[in-house]
């Protein structure tokens, strides 16, 4: 994950988590300085999570400002001139079509039959019931945990980054930055106590993923969150990839001695900065901070899972935290992709436009789209809608009820 400065978070698609861990608890890792919001269910987390998980939480944290926010100011042209705007849009679409044609990036309609019967939720449901859908991958960010009471990172007012003033940080992301943590770990552990896993219960979105596993359809669940709610919901460890780490284990930053979750939790709730019993250095939960690489298991699973995927479901992430966000492009070209989120993410701005020209990113335009479906709204509502249309509402409610009895 690339380290942020007080003014700018540099996007990095390398094997380092550019946007930190998604806090979904995301336990808490940083989702970055992105303007994009993982709000509530938004930003899937994700997918960053990292807050979108992160550092401590992580939809993984530290998001990158996608660059897509560049505004076409029109050189001072009046923004409210609808006629000019429509003309500009037409020129832009023509230019895109010309580039596609010249670079041979666009195949003829006859070469690629539609992936879904209809490019909507009903089409996704029909595909899931067809018997051809056997390997579903889910990607999640902070948005699937907000209804549990865990804040996302970017929502104005309620997001984590809007409420860190009491820690007197040089900039909000510093609380999930490895360099700052080494110098002053106290702010992180004070925040960790407030957001510590075990204080929250899984949401209907978590139980929907568990239901996919129960139905034998879940290939893998990739989460940016570090809140461990997937474990509480009963999702098998073999089916789970915690891209931004979690609080379940910890290591000494000095001698690398390992510690379990109970030990570090006792230290945190005793208001002590956890110190190694062997060398005295600070003990840090195994959450991905800015400046740290993602777990090896993440990369090993990605290398084999996504080529097998026949349906990708993305929930509660802004799709700005790398490398998590780019996973949507790792599925086969005809693989349907369903977004359950408060916002249609990854489809606007210069960067998104260039991605679409290269056959990447998401495309929700009815005239061109053959596989991307957006179910806009809260993640929990979207999961209930999907379960109802699949005829699974009783099964989902059963898992939710059983989960409440265990809590």
TrEMBL record:
It comes from the Eukaryota. The active site is at residue 244. Keywords: Metal-binding, NAD, Transferase, Zinc. Residues 114-393 form the Deacetylase sirtuin-type domain. One of its GO terms (molecular function) is metal ion binding. Residues 1-16, 27-50 have a biased composition (Low complexity). It catalyses: N(6)-hexadecanoyl-L-lysyl-[protein] + NAD(+) + H2O = 2''-O-hexadecanoyl-ADP-D-ribose + nicotinamide + L-lysyl-[protein]; N(6)-tetradecanoyl-L-lysyl-[protein] + NAD(+) + H2O = 2''-O-tetradecanoyl-ADP-D-ribose + nicotinamide + L-lysyl-[protein]. Gene3D superfamilies: SIR2/SIRT2 'Small Domain, TPP-binding domain. InterPro entries: DHS-like_NAD/FAD-binding_dom, NAD-dep_sirtuin_deacylases, Sirtuin, Sirtuin_cat_small_dom_sf, Ssirtuin_cat_dom. GO terms for cellular component: nucleus. Its cofactor is Zn(2+). The keyword Zinc applies. The keyword Membrane does not apply. Residues 1-67 are annotated as: Disordered. It holds the Pfam family SIR2. Residues 51-67 have a biased composition (Gly residues). PANTHER family: NAD-DEPENDENT PROTEIN DEACETYLASE SIRTUIN-2, NAD-DEPENDENT PROTEIN DEACYLASE SIRTUIN-5, MITOCHONDRIAL-RELATED. This is NAD-dependent protein deacetylase Sirt2 isoform X2. It comes from Hyalella azteca (Amphipod).
